[in-house]
Amino acid sequence: MSSNINRDTFNQVMVPNYSPMASIPVRGLGSRVWDQQGREYIDFAGGIAVNALGHSHPELVQALKEQAEKLWHLSNVWTNEPAIQLAQSLCTKTFAGRVYFANSGAEANEAAFKLARKYAYDHFSADKHEIISCVNSFHGRTLFTVSVGGQDKYREGFEPVPAGISHVPFNDLDALEAAISDKTCAVVIEPIQGEGGIMPASKAYLMKARELCDKHNALLIFDEIQTGVGRTGQLYAYQAYGVTPDILTTAKALGGGFPVGAMLTTEPIATALNIGSHGSTYGGNPLACAVANKVLSLIDSEEVLNGVEKRHQIFIEQLRQLNKTAPVFSEFRGMGLLLGCELQPAFKGKARDLLQLALEHGLMLLIAGPDVIRMTPSLIIPEEDIHQGMQRFTQAAEQFLQQQ
């Protein structure tokens, strides 16, 4: 890459909707990343729960190379073998009977919400179009998905937004029961709210949602964009809860870093998306599906999924030890390797400050709102990288305290 590319170049040529860090990563291997200056970082961010098998996993690289020498793209005028194989695998491993492919989580959710309305329109009436979502939820950045999402800040300036969408407090059974009616076509829930602060749903809440949807002939949609593909220690989080949705959306880790998304549903519900009712130029791309096939085959194994829980325990133990040395957090929450560390009230709003200090100490982290540090590392991150990364995090937390 040209040596005159730097962070200032970003400001000169890119739309200012992002504010990335000063360093520019140029190479990754496993759970280590190197920037333009050759500085090494331990990656606890995982591309926001995307790089589930780390960087440059040799089997993913090989799968991509092999497919690249065969077929890159066809369009949906034809189908292709990798897409069919991936759909077969997803149906075999989940409740689903049918799959729709997209390029991202937002597009998978867009398809899910359109399907819910179309199914209600076909089987009931046009009046049955209302969608219930949760406060602080996040479902994407298209106009429809940002409207279903429960965070006002992402909708401001883009109004008017689509009608027929309401939001209830997360994990509040009574509020959901009061809001749902025979006009509801779908209830949309993240089993663990990601952008909302790594907030797990209670099993009772998801079970009640299932019961209420059945009662009112509404579809239950689980947004598993962030929780899916091994992140919680199960292939999908619904399997840990024992509550089965009617529609499930998945992306992020599904491609291990290659853009791909999918909407999973049952055969009877899928019939509502009849020919021509929805589509995607790149959805089901052979390159993406070939990589995703390899990702699924590697992650859906006892070794990897059991390893997620083992690593979870190591992280929690290390985080508690950090908090004894530098007491900056009030709570640790999450499942598997989707972890949220909430700052003490005294440090409210300063999660990004701690994130920046961690980066200076050679550790890549995320935030989930202004008060929560988020960790979504590789599902196979070596234990040595966890220990060394936590040492760096401790140093950053100590510096953070000194600056207060």
UniProtKB/TrEMBL annotation:
<comment type="similarity">
    <text>Belongs to the class-III pyridoxal-phosphate-dependent aminotransferase family. ArgD subfamily.</text>
</comment>
<dbReference type="InterPro" id="IPR015422">
    <property type="entry name" value="PyrdxlP-dep_Trfase_small"/>
</dbReference>
<dbReference type="GO" id="GO:0005737">
    <property type="term" value="C:cytoplasm"/>
</dbReference>
<dbReference type="GO" id="GO:0006526">
    <property type="term" value="P:L-arginine biosynthetic process"/>
</dbReference>
<comment type="subunit">
    <text>Homodimer.</text>
</comment>
<feature type="binding site">
    <location>
        <position position="281"/>
    </location>
    <ligand>
        <name>pyridoxal 5'-phosphate</name>
    </ligand>
</feature>
<feature type="modified residue" description="N6-(pyridoxal phosphate)lysine">
    <location>
        <position position="252"/>
    </location>
</feature>
<dbReference type="InterPro" id="IPR015421">
    <property type="entry name" value="PyrdxlP-dep_Trfase_major"/>
</dbReference>
<feature type="binding site">
    <location>
        <position position="138"/>
    </location>
    <ligand>
        <name>pyridoxal 5'-phosphate</name>
    </ligand>
</feature>
<dbReference type="InterPro" id="IPR049704">
    <property type="entry name" value="Aminotrans_3_PPA_site"/>
</dbReference>
<protein>
    <recommendedName>
        <fullName>Acetylornithine aminotransferase</fullName>
        <ecNumber>2.6.1.11</ecNumber>
    </recommendedName>
</protein>
<dbReference type="InterPro" id="IPR015424">
    <property type="entry name" value="PyrdxlP-dep_Trfase"/>
</dbReference>
<keyword id="KW-0032">Aminotransferase</keyword>
<feature type="binding site">
    <location>
        <position position="141"/>
    </location>
    <ligand>
        <name>N(2)-acetyl-L-ornithine</name>
    </ligand>
</feature>
<feature type="binding site">
    <location>
        <position position="280"/>
    </location>
    <ligand>
        <name>N(2)-acetyl-L-ornithine</name>
    </ligand>
</feature>
<dbReference type="GO" id="GO:0003992">
    <property type="term" value="F:N2-acetyl-L-ornithine:2-oxoglutarate 5-aminotransferase activity"/>
</dbReference>
<keyword id="KW-0028">Amino-acid biosynthesis</keyword>
<keyword id="KW-0663">Pyridoxal phosphate</keyword>
<dbReference type="InterPro" id="IPR005814">
    <property type="entry name" value="Aminotrans_3"/>
</dbReference>
<feature type="binding site">
    <location>
        <begin position="223"/>
        <end position="226"/>
    </location>
    <ligand>
        <name>pyridoxal 5'-phosphate</name>
    </ligand>
</feature>
<dbReference type="InterPro" id="IPR050103">
    <property type="entry name" value="Class-III_PLP-dep_AT"/>
</dbReference>
<dbReference type="GO" id="GO:0030170">
    <property type="term" value="F:pyridoxal phosphate binding"/>
</dbReference>
<feature type="binding site">
    <location>
        <begin position="105"/>
        <end position="106"/>
    </location>
    <ligand>
        <name>pyridoxal 5'-phosphate</name>
    </ligand>
</feature>
<comment type="pathway">
    <text>Amino-acid biosynthesis; L-arginine biosynthesis; N(2)-acetyl-L-ornithine from L-glutamate: step 4/4.</text>
</comment>
<dbReference type="GO" id="GO:0042802">
    <property type="term" value="F:identical protein binding"/>
</dbReference>
<keyword id="KW-0963">Cytoplasm</keyword>
<dbReference type="InterPro" id="IPR004636">
    <property type="entry name" value="AcOrn/SuccOrn_fam"/>
</dbReference>
<dbReference type="Pfam" id="PF00202">
    <property type="entry name" value="Aminotran_3"/>
</dbReference>
<keyword id="KW-0808">Transferase</keyword>
<dbReference type="InterPro" id="IPR017652">
    <property type="entry name" value="Ac/SucOrn_transaminase_bac"/>
</dbReference>
<keyword id="KW-0055">Arginine biosynthesis</keyword>
